[in-house]
Description:
Low-confidence stretches: none
Oligomer: single chain
CATH architecture of the largest domain: Alpha-Beta Complex
Number of helices: 15
Largest sheet: 7 strands, mixed
Amino acid sequence: MNIQQSNRGVVYQGPGEVSVESIAFPELALGKRRCDHGVILKVLTTNICGSDQHMVRGRTTAPQGLVLGHEITGQIIECGRDVEFLKAGDIVSVPFNIACGRCRSCKEGNTGICLNVNPARPGAAYGYVDMGGWVGGQAEYVMVPYADFNLLKFPDADQAKEKIRDLTLLSDIFPTGFHGCVTAGVGPGSTVYIAGAGPVGLAAAASAQLLGAACVIVGDMIPERLQQARSFGCETLDLREDGDLAERIEQILGEPEVDAFVDCVGFEARCHGCNHHEEQPAVVLNSAMQLTRAGGRIGIPGLYVTEDPGAQEDAAKVGSLNMRFGLGWAKSHAFFTGQCPVMKYHRQLMQAILFEKVQIAQAVNVQMISLDQAPEGYLDFDGGAAKKFVIDPHGSVAA
């Protein structure tokens, strides 16, 4: 039995505020029941995600006191008695989706909408509002259930530590960006528009290249993020500038439409052009229908919520958006939404990292920080830093 008792984590304190607090050490338990299928992890890396920022900005119904963090890589220190294929000392990636492996959704490979891990609705995640109440992993230690099913074991612990800056991205943003591209139909020779140059957008751009895209165009409003996209070969559009997007794309491609469109922005989207400070939550979706060729596909890994108390319009507060859906219907577009089912991709993407077919940490500009620096990391990220902040709770990566 593990005898560690102390634990600290990043806790949501209300809009605009997080702090590092002492929290309970994890137990192999679900409420009053033993969790014999779970493991306890010493967290090696845990990342700050744009989805976390939605909560911290006060744009969801997240409760005060929530321990944040759904992007987790760790080392097993204790296994439940029913865990068969993992052992203490293994280094593993934790999919942000929590999945039982037993329900209809899981058996179909749709682990983002597991039916058994969240009483409120299909799908669960660590440290996230309305996603089952699971304790987050921006902490020193965390419990992971259904371990044999959920966890991706790295084949060599020393190699995993050497490449941890890349491998830490397997828990969410690399598979999520890749999923956005796959569902949008990206393949060899494709032309692709990526909306948003945050970490997920940059991961999607790198994924599009990995899938063989001929040209990847990234749109954003933050010059540093656009420069980051250009650093690995993407074309870019500064969306603060006026001008019709179709015409600007035609200047790059010779035609005004792309084969595939990936929305990595979500519900906090803002207007294009001179009014770029104003929110317009459906602007990316409407741009997608304008800019995607007839018969094309639109991947939407960007987050859209059912409740947005911070929205400017009453309709948007309940997730109702002003979409020009008739255009998408007329052009026979296919739309793909929802959480990425991480397990569908993470092993293949691990191999791409280990065999150096992709430099994903470089693409998203990983910045390592300590647990105590997490509040500052949240502030910098909210300010538009062109970085992916990765927390090193024990100083093990720095060492």
